[in-house]
Amino acid sequence: ATYGNMVEPDLLKGYPQDFVAVQLTRFFFAVLATISYPLQVHPSRASIMALWSLAAGPAHLQGPRAERRRFWVITAVWVPLSFLVAVTVTDLGIVLGIVGATGST
Q1: Are 67 and 59 in contact (CB under 8 A)?
Q2: pLDDT, tens digit (0-9, with 9 covering 90-100), for 71-95
Q3: Exposure string for 49-71, b = 16+ CB within 10 A, e = fewer
Q4: Inter-residue contact 7 to 14 (CB < 8 Å)
């Protein structure tokens, strides 16, 4: 089926895997994910830093290196967590649902 609930969340699974066009599309999706990752991380890290400042106070009041330390702590946690999600989630529909629900474009 090509409409409704019968469509698989990963649209590319519905096409024959031996087609060159499908393989190229998978490759370009991988390139897109690689290029868009920094564009997704930057605003999410900025939001986490803003929430951290609300909870613990502005970093510049806690010393000259506090903001840099917060940046690296968030990055050191965020990158492995996103890698863990990428490795463990097998259904692209789940990821796209989360991205769509959070308003990311």
Answers
A1: yes
A2: 999 999 999 998 898 888 887 777 7
A3: beebbeeeeebeeeeeebeeebe
A4: yes
